[in-house]
C-alpha cells in the first residue's frame, strides 16, 4: 500500500514538473509581449515584466496591418461555419435518405480523404484561375467550404437518430428542411460543437492556401501576417511575441474548456 502511494506521488510530481516545463515557454511568450524590447533581450532574461506596456500590440495594428489580417481571418471563419452547416446537411442526406448510388457516392467522398491536400492544391488553383477567382476572398474561402472528414463524422452521428422520430415529425406536417433544423441539429449538438471548434481553429490558423491564392497583402490572414512579421522584423522579439500571443490566446481562452468537454461527450461517434 505504501509502495503504491509512493509511486503515485512520484508519478504526480514528475508529471507536474513536466507540465511546468512545457508551460514555461508559453507563459514567457505571453509575458514578453508586454515587455519593452530592451528587456526581452536582457541577459539574464526576466519572466515578469519590469514595466508593462501595450506598445507592441499598438504597433501590430498601427504599423503592421494586423487589423486587416484579423478582418480577413474572421471572414474565413464566418464562411467556414457556413460550410459546417453544408457538411451537416450532406451528412444528414447520407445518413437518412435512400437514393440510387448513395453507397458509391459516400465511398467516393471518403476516398478523397486519402488524397493529401498538397496534391490537390495545384488543380484547384488552376480551376480558380480559369474562373478568375485567384487573388480574391472568394478564391480563399470556396475550396474549404465542405470537407469529407466533417461529412463522415456527421453521417456517422446522424445514423444513430431514430427513424421513427423523423417519421413522426413528418407526419405532423414538418418539411425536410424544418425537420433538419428543429430535430436533427439539436440532437446533433455534441458533434456540432466538436466540429465548430475544429472549424474555428482551422479558419483561425489558415496559412498555406491564403498564401498561395492571395498576391495582395490586403487579403492575408493572421498566420500569413505573423510569418511576414517575423521575416521583416527579425530582431524585434517583443513585437514577434505580441503577434504570436495575439494568435494563440483567443483560442486558449474561448475554446480550451469546450475542446475537452465536447470530445468527452461526443466520443467521436
From TrEMBL:
Sorted UniProt keywords: Cell membrane, Membrane, Transmembrane, Transmembrane helix, Transport
Classification via InterPro entries: MetI-like, MetI-like_sf
TM segment ranges: 12-31, 73-92, 104-128, 140-158, 179-201, 237-260
Domain ABC transmembrane type-1: 69-258
Topological relation to the membrane, as annotated: Multi-pass membrane protein
Record carries keyword Cell membrane: yes
Keyword Transport belongs to the record: yes
Pfam families found in the cross-reference section: BPD_transp_1 (PF00528)
Cellular localisation: Cell membrane
Family statement: Belongs to the binding-protein-dependent transport system permease family.
PANTHER family associated with the record: ABC TRANSPORTER PERMEASE PROTEIN MG189-RELATED (PTHR43744:SF12), ABC TRANSPORTER PERMEASE PROTEIN MG189-RELATED-RELATED (PTHR43744)
Protein name per the record: Carbohydrate ABC transporter permease
Organism: Paenibacillus medicaginis
Amino acid at each position: 500500500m505504501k509502495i503504491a502511494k509512493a509511486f503515485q506521488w512520484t508519478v504526480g510530481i514528475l508529471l507536474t514538473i513536466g507540465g511546468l516545463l512545457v508551460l514555461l515557454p508559453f507563459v514567457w511568450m505571453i509575458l514578453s509581449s508586454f515587455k519593452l524590447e530592451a528587456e526581452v533581450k536582457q541577459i539574464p532574461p526576466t519572466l515578469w515584466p519590469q514595466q508593462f506596456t501595450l506598445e507592441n500590440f499598438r504597433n501590430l495594428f498601427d504599423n503592421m496591418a494586423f487589423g486587416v489580417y484579423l478582418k480577413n481571418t474572421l471572414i474565413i471563419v464566418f464562411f467556414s461555419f457556413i460550410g459546417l452547416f453544408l457538411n451537416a446537411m450532406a451528412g444528414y442526406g447520407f445518413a437518412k435518405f435512400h437514393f440510387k448510388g448513395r453507397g458509391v457516392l459516400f465511398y467516393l467522398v471518403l476516398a478523397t480523404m486519402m488524397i493529401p491536400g498538397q496534391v490537390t492544391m495545384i488543380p484547384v488553383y488552376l480551376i480558380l484561375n480559369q474562373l478568375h477567382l485567384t487573388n480574391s476572398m472568394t478564391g480563399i474561402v470556396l475550396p474549404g467550404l465542405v470537407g469529407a472528414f466533417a461529412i463522415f463524422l456527421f453521417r456517422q452521428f446522424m445514423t444513430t437518430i431514430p427513424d421513427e422520430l423523423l417519421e413522426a415529425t413528418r407526419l405532423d406536417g414538418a418539411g425536410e428542411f424544418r425537420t433538419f433544423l428543429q430535430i436533427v441539429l439539436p440532437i446533433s449538438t455534441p458533434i456540432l460543437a466538436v466540429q465548430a471548434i475544429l472549424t474555428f481553429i482551422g479558419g483561425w490558423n489558415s496559412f498555406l492556401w491564403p498564401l498561395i491564392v492571395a498576391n495582395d497583402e490586403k487579403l492575408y490572414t493572421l498566420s500569413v501576417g505573423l510569418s511576414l512579421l517575423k521575416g521583416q522584423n527579425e530582431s524585434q522579439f517583443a513585437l514577434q511575441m505580441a503577434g504570436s500571443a495575439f494568435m494563440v490566446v483567443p483560442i486558449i481562452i474561448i475554446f480550451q474548456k469546450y475542446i475537452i468537454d465536447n470530445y468527452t461527450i461526443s466520443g467521436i461517434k
